[in-house]
Amino acid sequence: MTTDLSDYAIIKEGEAEILMHAKNQVFYNKTQVNNRDISIAVLRAFIEKRKEEHEARLSKKTKTAPKVSEKDASNSVVEEVSNESDIIDEKTNGDCEVAAEISQEEPCSISQEPNKVTEGKGQVELKPPRVLEALSASGLRALRYAREVEGIGQVVALDNDKVSVEACRRNIKFNGSVACSKVESHLADARVHMLTHPKEFDVVDLDPYGSPSVFLDSAVQSVVDGGLLMCTATDMAVLCGGNGEVCYSKYGSYPLRGKYCHEMALRILLACIESHANRYKRYIVPVLSVQMDFYVRVFVRIYSSASAMKNTPLKLSYVYQCIGCDSFHLQPIGRTVAKNSSVRYLPGFGPVVPQECNDCGKKFNMGGPIWSAPIHDQEWVTSILSDVKSMKERYPAYDRISAVLTTISEELPDVPLFLSLHNLCATLKCTSPSAVIFRSAVINAGYRISGTHVNPLGLKSDAPMNVIWDIMRCWVKNHPVKPQPPEQSGTVILAKEPVLQANFARAVASLSKAQTKKVARFLPNPERHWGPKLRAGRQITSKHISLLGPDAVNGVLNHEEDEEHNAKRQKIEDHPTPN
């Protein structure tokens, strides 16, 4: 390497090392170690799942192979040719011919070579998955994939910034032969590259600075059937309702400012990806959706099926949120009606709410549409969590990602959005019951309840809002509040007698398994200024101390002063003043 290492700082993360210049030339954020670690964990699970699915398809073919071989052995060569059309009904011509040959001549070859599948006129191995990192910057993520994920294939790192591509290629060389053989860096527009390489990548990773909306249309086209799309959105102010009209223009959905706004951001992103996929007769299956730090990250598998795509309206809903008491209700977009063996797809029944809230009498805000189907696959989550625990030393952010995955594994998968116990009490102006007491009351009423990884105070429950408010009315009867103005939402709610008599006796399931074992679920940031960083290329000045911290800013400013002083000194030496 001809690079002068004195100009760079060596940053090590996992098994990868990168060279970072003192100036803010190429984007790097230490905080995203959580993002990269959880992506590696999901990628490992995907490779394992892909292998299992391949072996399942292979074993399915072996079951039909003996039938074909028996038929071929009993007939003459002429009859075999004439009866080909009967065999083609379930398999392609090439498939059946090869399957027959395998069953007659090499009956053990399939069990000995599980990574091969019969397609066309020959055997095709299950190739290692190809990965596209569409916005690579320094290439740290691509290098970690190549060096840490077993069984991974080629990793293509793209960037449309020349300085970033040079830095990425420099880092590839710096990481040795493994990185050089697996990672390739290109100067290209990610959108154009994905559009010109349809269904070529098993995994596509989108981690832009800001919104991923402009990349989604091309990304859903470049993933193979059953492939994995990993997508990050960091424009949380937009997704959480700070600029609703901007969110609608980018994602096609209107956000609401509720306590559940971060989970709603996840569901808006999923609905947007589904919308782009549907245009090409494709649909998504979420395996993991995470809100961490200052961003949301979703992992979805993409499949092609015109018939399965018809179920999309069943997975989307509008949200009605009361402006007085923050009660929310979901309005599904579509429904199905089964008649004999056929299924009809119809518009959803509505409205699910009257003009005024039944609990407090105020109006509703309407948001959405959002993804209202499950946002996690619990089988995947369990598998990823066990994998992370089995190799904790290989994850720099093990404590954080294991805590998040543990909480996700205990969420109710079929309950969209969540309640905030403190918000309910703020509406009624009452003291708050403990989470255990409130959970017990919900469970004793015959409903389910769990926590959420998005908010330590959030509670997911399938109990309707009238039951929730009845429980709170019973709580207030035992813990009276001061009189409030009659127009207040809390006053209107408490004026009604509870229909349900709440039972606050402690229920067995009021604590989750993680809480019972006292497993940490919500961890503090490991250091100060743990958050978003400046976009690459922007000059770091003293006004960025609150974002980057005084040490980082002073270090950059001192480095620039030294460079300026050295430049002046060199100029004086080159052009001395005459006597």
Automatic annotation (TrEMBL):
Its EC number is 2.1.1.216. GO terms for molecular function: metal ion binding; tRNA (guanine(26)-N2)-dimethyltransferase activity; tRNA binding. SUPFAM superfamilies: S-adenosyl-L-methionine-dependent methyltransferases (SSF53335). Pfam families: TRM. Residues 565-579 have a biased composition (Basic and acidic residues). It catalyses: guanosine(26) in tRNA + 2 S-adenosyl-L-methionine = N(2)-dimethylguanosine(26) in tRNA + 2 S-adenosyl-L-homocysteine + 2 H(+). GO terms for biological process: tRNA N2-guanine methylation. Residues 54-90, 102-123, 560-579 are annotated as: Disordered. GO terms for cellular component: nucleus. CDD domains: AdoMet_MTases. InterPro entries: SAM-dependent_MTases_sf (IPR029063), Trm1 (IPR002905), tRNA_met_Trm1_C (IPR042296). NCBIfam families: TRM1. Belongs to the class I-like SAM-binding methyltransferase superfamily. Trm1 family. Dimethylates a single guanine residue at position 26 of most tRNAs using S-adenosyl-L-methionine as donor of the methyl groups. This is tRNA (guanine(26)-N(2))-dimethyltransferase. It comes from Prunus avium. The gene is LOC110759076.
